[in-house]
Amino acid sequence: MENILEELKWRGAVNQVSDEAGLEELLAKKSIGVYCGVDPTGDSLHIGHLIPFMMLKRFQMAGHRTHILIGGGTGSIGDPSGKKSERTLQTMEQVHHNEEALTGQMKALFGKDNITIVNNYDWLKEISLLDFLRDYGKLFNVNTMLNKEVVASRLEVGISYTEFTYQILQAIDFHHLLKTKDVQLQIGGADQWGNITAGIDLIHKMEGSDTQAFALTIPLMLKADGTKFGKTAGGAVWLDAEKTTPYEFYQFWLNQDDRDVVKYLKYFTFLDEAQIAELAKKLEEHPELREAQRRLAEEVTEFVHGKEAVVQAEHISKALFSGEVKALTAAEIEQGFKNMPTVEISSEPENIVEWLVDTGIEKSKRQAREDVTNGAIYINGDRVQDLDAVIDPAENFDGKFVIARRGKKRYFLARVTK
Hints:
Blueprint: H1 4-10, E1 16-17, H2 20-29, E2 33-38, H3 47-61, E3 65-70, H4 92-110, E4 115-119, H5 121-124, H6 129-136, H7 142-147, H8 149-152, H9 161-164, H10 166-181, E5 183-189, H11 193-207, E6 214-218, E7 231-232, E8 235-236, H12 246-254, H13 258-268, H14 273-285, H15 291-305, H16 307-322, H17 330-336, E9 342-345, E10 350-351, H18 352-358, H19 365-373, E11 377-379, E12 382-383, E13 390-391, E14 401-406, E15 410-416
Parallel strand pairs: 2-3, 2-5, 3-4, 5-6, 9-15
Antiparallel strand pairs: 1-6, 7-8, 10-13, 11-12, 11-14, 14-15
Helix pairs in contact: 10-11, 12-15, 12-16, 13-14, 13-15, 15-16, 16-17, 18-19
């Protein structure tokens, strides 16, 4: 079996490991049970969540028994990790809705081989308050809990007892999965170290100090400029195609900084060392070609949205770059023009000068006439210089849109709504 730890280290994906020698020895002997958890705080994962789950995927591909834990129980409480203030509790209806959405996304990413999806609500809901205090609370030292980074960082502003006990619930999860699924390794982000090691401590107290249980955390992902990875001016980059279209998703990866792209190829793709070295060389010799970024965008978009989404994203990109927008379908226009200036229009045909002013693309008829005459106006990819031309929305894109362009790059989407 391949040395998965060496693979993860080469990819820069290992932050901390508990008892590394012991884990190395265990991995060399057999396929082990590994898990990574996510709380259903929203109805979609974002690319920040992908970081530990890409590592879990590598364990899956290496033949290990991987488990995804959807935190239906812990998600109703709220993990204090990485938060400067108390979370707002969600309703149980919202938590269950989010559980279903995340489970669907995980099934799409992980398929069916060597993967089990579990929900900690199933066992946490069975524990009574007295059982919790007698069976588990007795095994946790408050002084130790206070010293955990996740709690210590919140002591000045305050932390509720609810969030304080979160690490106990996560520890119970690890113990439960060890006993029922033979899971011996938990993976998480750098901020999860305290929670994961709390689980190892609980296992040793309940099952004996020689019981093998391990923690592996992933480094905090920072961009070359020092800012946190995964955020854009528009907010998070979601895996849900309704929240972040596959085209936007593709563009996010395509636009990565030269200084970051090799690191992301190691983290977010399944390309091997030789393939990434070749892309790094091309980046160094011909950075203007952006081959590394293009390959990164292709690989991650295919992993999350499928091959067809890559073809579509590249088609939209090419059409926008060349101005040949007439080749786009109505569905592709929905994706490619999502963040461009949009106006609502009627389906009635209208003279081009009147239409440009009515849509607000031009401020006055004089300016509209001047731009049309000078050849600065394109409608659905075609230059229009005839002042008597008529804009008929029914002629293209299933009668749903008219695409106007002023100059080289200023696109406007006119959406037929009446």
